[in-house]
Specification:
Elements lengths: L3 E11 L2 E10 L2 H8 L10 H6 L20
Antiparallel strand pairs: 1-2
Length: 72
């Protein structure tokens, strides 16, 4: 996918459940549309993952990166 920068999968235990959050960085909303389609707020979750998850947020949130710092 052009415009893709990186992806992170975050995990935390919440009581008896485990919560996951995916953070995907792209150069632009056009890159997101290329990946997710014109209605880019509809989440993209592979069928294999859907089978093991008890709940999924069906709409994604999009943010503009305003600052970024690395430990390098």
């Amino acid at each position: 996918m052009s415009g893709f920068k990186n992806i992170q999968l975050l995990r935390r235990e919440v009581g008896a459940e485990v919560e996951f959050i995916t953070i995907m960085l792209c150069d632009s909303l056009d890159a997101v549309r290329e990946f997710a389609g014109e209605d880019y707020q509809v989440v993209v979750v592979p069928e294999k993952a859907r089978k093991v998850l008890s709940r999924i947020d069906e709409r994604s949130q999009h943010y503009e990166v305003r600052a970024e710092e690395t430990g390098k």
